[in-house]
């Protein structure tokens, strides 16, 4: 199983030379590792329960993301982000970064971190045209969302679940 994991990790690291999508490599590695684990185990019922638990956790995150992204796309299709982008009247990237991170920090104290990060990165994709700027802002949004969730007396909703 260790060999399969290492080979899968190498396939993910060398995605471009192998011309193999890293998601496909990760899925194949996961399936092979679970299969080997189940075939080598004496207690297949226990392994089945463990697998069901892990698949359930992954599914709950995916369903949450589907819902959150649907809401973001609905807001975007009805020009909901225009209200915020019209209020931001700065051309200085440093000032814009401060505004976005402050807004993210306080918004994540009210919402959960993941939804806030999705909404704010979607907002930044409307404001910023340069890909490198969007990546820097996205990184700062993730940091600000986690900091705001930790700062909130309510805590992060996802951390408690």
Task: List the SSEs and their pairings.
Layout: H1 2-13, H2 15-18, H3 22-40, H4 44-77, H5 81-87, H6 93-110, H7 113-127, H8 131-151, H9 157-160
What's the number of structural domains?
Answer: 2
Oligomer category: single chain
How large a portion of the residues is in β-strands, by DSSP E?
A: under 5%
E-strand count: 0
Give the CA-based shape.
Answer: elongated
Summarize the structure.
With 161 residues, the chain is an all-alpha fold. The chain has nine helices and no strands. Helix content is 83%, strand content 0%.
Features:
about 160 residues; mainly alpha; 2 domains; 9 helices; elongated; disordered C terminus
Q: Could you characterize the architecture of this molecule?
A:
The chain is an all-alpha fold and 161 residues long. 83% of the residues lie in helices and 0% in strands. It is built from nine helices and no strands. Helix 4 (44-77) crosses helix 7 and helix 6 (93-110) packs parallel to helix 8 (131-151). The longest helix has 34 residues, at 44-77. The model is unreliable at 157-161 (pLDDT under 50).
């Amino acid at each position: 199983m260790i060999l399969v994991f290492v080979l899968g990790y190498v396939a993910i690291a060398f995605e471009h030379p192998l011309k193999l999508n890293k998601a496909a490599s990760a899925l194949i590695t996961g399936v092979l590792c679970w299969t080997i684990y189940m075939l080598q185990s004496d207690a297949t019922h226990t392994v089945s329960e463990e697998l069901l638990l892990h698949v359930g956790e992954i599914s709950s995150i995916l369903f949450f993301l589907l819902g959150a992204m649907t809401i973001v796309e609905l807001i975007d299709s009805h020009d909901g982000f225009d209200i915020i982008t019209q209020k931001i009247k700065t051309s200085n990237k440093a000032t814009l970064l401060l505004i976005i991170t402050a807004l993210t920090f306080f918004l994540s104290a009210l919402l959960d971190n993941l939804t806030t990060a999705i909404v704010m990165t979607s907002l930044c994709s409307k404001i910023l045209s340069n890909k490198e700027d969007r990546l820097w802002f996205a990184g700062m949004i993730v940091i600000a969302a986690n900091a705001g969730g930790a700062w909130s007396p309510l805590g992060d909703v996802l951390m408690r679940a």
